[in-house]
Amino acid sequence: MELNNPETLRQVEACSDLYERALAENDVQVLDDLFWNGPEVVRYGVGENLYGAEEIAAFRRSRKGGSPPRRNLRRTITAIGNESAVVSLEFQREGSDRIGRQMQTWIRTDNGWKILAAHVSLMAARPETERPAL
C-alpha cells in the first residue's frame, strides 16, 4: 500500500476545495453529488447524526441559510493507496473563537471521488486534561 500518491492527493485536494466552495455557497446539489449516494454513507454533525444519502440530503435542504460562514485554519490530506483518502480540516466559524474539526473519508468510484463518512465537531471550551472526565 502506498501513502500519499501525488496524483491522488491532487485529485482529493481538488474535490475538497470544491466541497468547501459548495459549503460556503450553500450549493446543496454539489454537496449532495460529492457524497456517496447510498445507505452506507454517514455524516455526524455538530447537532445531528445522519445515516444514508437521503437523511443527509434532507438535512441540507432543511438547514436555513446553509452552514455558518467559517475560515479554514488547517487541512491535512492523507491518500491511502489510489482508492481512498482522509481529509482532516480545522476551521473557525465567523464570530466565534471555538475551533471546529471536520474529517471526511473519500473513496474513488466509477462516478468520481465521493465522501463515504464525515464528522464535524466543535472543540470543548477546555481540554479534558483541565476538567474532570465525565
UniProtKB/TrEMBL annotation:
Gene3D superfamilies membership: 3.10.450.50
Protein name according to UniProt: DUF4440 domain-containing protein
Source organism, top-level taxon: Bacteria
Species in which this protein is naturally found: Acetobacter pasteurianus NBRC 3278
Pfam family, one: AtzH-like
